[in-house]
Design a protein that fits this description.
single chain; alpha+beta; Vanillyl-alcohol Oxidase, Chain A, domain 3; elongated; disordered C terminus; Type IV secretory system conjugative DNA transfer family protein; T4SS-coupling_protein; transmembrane; cell membrane
Amino acid sequence: MTARLIFSHLHVPRPLCVEDIVRPFGRLAADPNTPLVVLECRADQRGTRHLLGVLPEHIRWIHRTLCDLLPGLTILPVGVERPRADVTTAAEIAVRPALLGLLGVAAEDTSAALLSALNARLLANEELAVQVLLGPTLAGRSLRSRVSDPGSSLWRALSQGRQLAPPAIAKQIEGRLSLNGFRAILRIGITATTPERAKRLGSGLMGALASAKPPDASLLAKRIRPAVINEGRPPMRWPLRLTAAELPCVLGWPIGTRDLPGVAPVHPKLLLPRRMPTEEKRIIGYTALPGTNIPIGVSAQDSLMHQVLLGPTGSGKSTVLLAQIKADIEAGRSLLLIDPKKQLVNDVVERCIPVGELGRVVIVDPEDPQVPGFNPLDVGDRDPDVVVDGLLAVFRAVFADGWGPRTEDVFLASLLTLGRVGQRRKEPFTLLDLPKLLTDERFRRLVIGKVSDDEVLEGFWAAYNELSPAAQAAMIAAPMNKLRRYLLRPSVARLLGQARPQYRFRDIFRDNKVVLIALNEGLIGPITAQLIGSLFVSETWMATLERAAEDLPMDRPGFVVVDECQNFVHLPTSFGDALSQSRSYGVAWVLAHQSRKQMPAELLESIDSNARTKVIFRLESAKDAADIARLAPELDATDIQMLPKHHAYVRVVTGGESSGWTAITTLPPPPKTGLADQIRQRSRELYGGKGRAAAKPTTSASMAPLDQADAPVGRKRRMKPTGGELP
């Protein structure tokens, strides 16, 4: 043999049974053209690995045959970080008498014993190896005469004549010889710190292999030159005949379902992707299978297929999001992050923003006295009816308790009135004007006087004004309770009370801004956080639709990252349709949540169907795990429930196609940049409000005159004015 063997790393699937091993090697044993195959089981301080050595010209055929007949087997090049090391001591193992072969029925126990011996407490730079060379194939044959006793000595045969084998042994030999097999040789290799340790480690390997020999056989070890095993040299004479059924005894492959030393457990399955991702910057993590360390990422273009992350608090979702957010900010992409706990926003500010991107960052923290303003009623050139559709969807979802048709009428008429009048007078109202419109008669008459040419709104307000003060109070009791409770809080008023904020969030994609919404539920309350976050999502959805006017928006992807997405995704359209349209307009949604039971059925179905990149962490809920397992045929619920912290199963989109499921370890958080204070101060200077002075409801004196000849803006709605008490 002049060519050198090429060794590859075998990743053997689990659980594995003897038949799984017999099938591919039985196929090779039946083919007279099968080339030399070298199989090794090696161990060092990092654990056990299985190698396959083949001559270069036969690699493709051998690899394909093994993978086709052993589903789940993955063959990868031997990594440079863990090369195949030379051993310093080697021995050839012989079975005497050779005709007896090995006990295939003991394969599971022998394999466990061999893995145990290989994973002795090895020191640094120590290595153990078991090497099996499969040479020329041997066809099965029938014996024409009775079998001689393989245990009979030469002296006994000369002195007493031919001795026949006992019936049980004869049957065993006849059965072995009737099967296809290989000429073979078995070797062990050792690198140890001292000769005494080499001897002790070698004895352990011999003891493990001895469990595979028949009762009347023995194992013999003969020292050979280490170069023989290091180079995988075939012998001049092949001392063994091994059938495919006997091979599992000596391969050291993890047979059975129990945990075995030095190899990956059955659960969670450490899968590798069927289609290898090529993205190198927007990395989610690295493959968890020991020795692989393959980066798994999703490109900005493939991210337009949307992404969902599922896992409980502390599972590692934030570290995945940090890595992707950092890559997007560094690439100059627009991004909105809604964080209900504020910690993720703090981490982004401290770790993800380079010095050259400071001017793009807008930090919205309701607890900051100089929080940037946000006015959802700043209609601008939009259709007021469309704007109100979005706001009404938010209020309907956030204020679901006690919401009825009369409450909706009040909100609809009030929002439409403020939106249309603000647009026509070119001075927008704010949501803080909503309670004032309902309770301040003088202010209300000034406002509704400017929609007198709108029959629907005029009719509603005419009916409203005809009610007695007590009837009006009863009619607006539910809306006013909700509005006063949440909109008039100081932190909310600072944010939503700025009629002309320094920055319009509708321009986030046009300006490539990074908007970080920090909603600390513990300080502002969960309902307030839900209201603010939902208003930002609604605004972002309208900004997404406006990208239809851009040339090639998909060439400039923008990202909407929403943690605890079930609290904030309240749109006037089906979210499934929204995700589909967002893709066309170059906006990718990254949605995170803790449990599937938190999600409304329609929202869950939309995300399952449209978020094609999925990142699944350990799930405590058996039902959630079973639901995800139905989406992942390669996995079962136990796999998902046994993931360690900062491990996940992911399926990414690569080149428009699914990678298949793979197990990963997530990245550690990026290091802190030391720019956090500078970033926050820059955001206040460029985009911040002016404290209390910025948050004022509109006064009667500030109402600018309006030409009554101006035409009403937007489409008309049919609205039946209602009075009386709310449901």
